[in-house]
């Protein structure tokens, strides 16, 4: 829950509330000219351009010159939600409807002071609160696309996404390969690859070490972040104030109850929904680890070069691409020595005047003059320095340190009582960074524990609590029940009818799992199931 004053808390609980709000938008995107922003794919990593920071680093959206459009607000709706059922990543979006009676937001209106400035990716900050007290920020992000203009009702609707959605959909411009990294270190490496510095996020210390991690160029950043966080039942998100945070597997377990709801402040509650039940969970993982130097490629006959020939004329060079593969498919390789002529017990090659090796050796005349090692392949450039003889590469052996599959993990956990009651409702988790059977079992058990009963998840509409956050523990009590739940989705709506929130809440048994290097042997923490 966001930190607020006691006065703010009292007004949230009050039966009569005088709401207040702020809608700030920077259509002109004016900012301090001495500080530039990091642009994915353009700015230099480690340069002066920045995206955001904590209190010690100026945040991108704080540098803009915002204009206040609060008086034009007809409605604000924002949603913050975690991925079901594990919640490895949380994203937010918002929709703002503004009064457009004077056509100020109409793009074709040349007399509008905003003419030429209404475009995609305009910074937005939204606040909710009460009169005579502070308003707290509930969303920070940017507009997505152009406003939808309703000429009949003279309104403009802006759809907005948080900055983390921008990062989520970004593609890696270079492959990422890491060895023996904690989950938080791996997450930081991914964030760094898209321009964020280590000082620009707040990450819990991870409780899982990943022996080998690899994402090829073109992988969606959100895919990588989800898998890493999911591997230890953690979560990554950008909070209401624009700080990127990673919470490890024990974080939510440390939360305490922050708000209570009952029929006096609940507007509606949906009936339990059987489609949300999960009572059968399968977990798959093919774990990899880097092995000792060994042969990873051996040619079969004379090499065929990129030009579809297998001969190198005198004083010429030819290139060849080599793919590293094994029984599990593409084989990532962390290092490989440059093949040398005549070497047999490591990376080496032989060249000859005949393709079958029956002619004269050309090993004294042929060398590899260029090597580009990619994660699962390599490019070698062979140069024939002979002035008279053509050469064939009759043997190429490449040695290196491959990251081979160590274990094919498969775990299935079922709740037979739930299956008998609601039929089998399956869910599948495929994540190669889940490191062992215990971790796979923990993930399956957690999902079953959270979702196997029909009342494990509920949707309740309540009088809005602006300071409520994903992961908070709330209590709902009435004449029939008295239960605590985690908040996993918040949809807030502020309009002429007031401020209300629709919450998706999940029942969860809090267990303090043992964490190697953190928990005390003989302490109260349990070994994960």
Secondary-structure-based class equals mainly beta
Provide the gyration radius in Å: 29 Å
Biggest β-sheet description: 17 strands, mixed
Low-confidence stretches: 35-58, 512-529
Distance between the termini: 29 Å
Q: Describe the oligomeric state of these chains in a short phrase.
A: single chain
Number of helices: 6
Helix content: 10-25%
Shape: elongated
Rounded mean pLDDT is 88
Beta fraction of the residues? 35-45%
Give a structural overview:
- The protein has 529 residues and is mainly beta.
- The protein has helices spanning 6-13, 163-169, 183-193, 221-230, 416-422, 437-451; strands spanning 19-25, 67-68, 73-82, 89-99, 123-130, 135-143, 148-150, 155-162, 176-182, 202-203, 209-215, 235-238, 244-247, 257-261, 266-269, 280-290, 294-298, 316-323, 325-326, 329-330, 333-336, 340-341, 348-352, 366-374, 377-384, 392-414, 426-430, 457-463, 473-477, 482-495, 498-506.
- The protein has a 17-stranded mixed β-sheet that branches.
- Strand 29 and strand 30 form a beta hairpin.
- Helix 2 (163-169) crosses helix 4 and helix 3 packs antiparallel against helix 4 (221-230).
- It is elongated, with a radius of gyration of 29 Å.
């Amino acid at each position: 829950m966001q930190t607020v004053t006691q006065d703010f808390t009292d007004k949230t609980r009050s039966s009569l509330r005088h709401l207040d709000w702020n809608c700030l938008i920077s259509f002109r995107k004016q900012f301090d000219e001495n500080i530039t922003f990091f642009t994915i794919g353009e700015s230099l990593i480690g340069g002066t351009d920045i995206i955001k920071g904590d209190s010690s680093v100026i945040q991108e959206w704080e540098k803009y010159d915002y204009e206040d459009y609060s008086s034009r607000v007809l409605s604000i709706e924002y949603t913050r939600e975690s991925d079901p059922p594990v919640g490895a990543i949380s994203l937010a979006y918002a929709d703002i409807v503004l009064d457009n009676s004077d056509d100020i937001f109409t793009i074709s209106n040349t007399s509008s002071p905003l003419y030429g400035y209404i475009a995609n990716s305009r910074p937005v900050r939204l606040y909710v609160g009460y009169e005579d007290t502070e308003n707290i920020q509930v969303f920070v992000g940017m507009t997505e696309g152009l406003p939808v203009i309703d000429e009949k009702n003279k309104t403009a609707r802006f759809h907005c996404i948080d900055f983390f959605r921008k990062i989520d959909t970004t593609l890696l411009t270079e492959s990422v390969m890491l060895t023996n990294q904690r989950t938080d270190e791996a997450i930081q490496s991914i964030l760094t690859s898209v321009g964020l510095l280590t000082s620009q996020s707040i990450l819990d210390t991870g409780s899982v070490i990943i022996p080998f991690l690899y994402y090829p160029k073109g992988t969606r950043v959100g895919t990588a972040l989800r898998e890493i966080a999911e591997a230890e039942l953690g979560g990554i998100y950008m909070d209401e104030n624009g700080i990127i945070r990673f919470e490890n597997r024990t974080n939510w377990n440390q939360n305490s109850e922050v708000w209570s709801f009952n029929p006096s402040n609940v507007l509606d509650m949906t009936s339990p929904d059987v489609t949300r039940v999960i009572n059968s969970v399968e977990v798959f993982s093919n774990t990899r680890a880097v092995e000792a130097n060994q042969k990873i490629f051996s040619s079969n006959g004379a090499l065929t070069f990129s030009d579809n020939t297998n001969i190198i004329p005198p004083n010429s060079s030819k290139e060849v691409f080599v793919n590293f593969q094994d029984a599990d498919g593409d084989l990532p390789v962390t290092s490989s020595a440059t093949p040398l002529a005549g070497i047999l017990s490591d990376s080496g090659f032989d060249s000859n005047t005949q393709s079958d090796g029956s002619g004269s050796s050309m090993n004294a005349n042929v060398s590899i003059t260029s090597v580009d090692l990619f994660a699962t392949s390599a490019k070698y450039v062979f140069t024939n320095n002979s002035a008279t003889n053509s050469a064939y590469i009759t043997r190429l052996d490449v040695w290196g340190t491959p990251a081979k599959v160590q274990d094919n993990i498969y775990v299935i956990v079922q709740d037979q009582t739930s299956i008998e009651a609601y039929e089998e409702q399956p869910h599948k988790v495929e994540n190669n960074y889940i490191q062992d059977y215990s971790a796979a079992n923990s993930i399956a058990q957690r999902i079953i524990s959270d979702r196997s009963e029909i009342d494990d998840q509920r949707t309740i509409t309540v009088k809005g609590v602006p300071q409520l956050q994903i992961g908070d523990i709330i209590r709902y009590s009435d004449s029939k029940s008295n239960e605590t739940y985690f908040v996993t989705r918040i949809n807030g709506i502020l309009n002429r009818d007031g401020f209300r929130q629709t919450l998706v809440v999940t029942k969860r048994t809090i267990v303090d799992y043992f964490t190697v290097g953190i928990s005390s042997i003989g302490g109260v923490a349990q070994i994960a199931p």
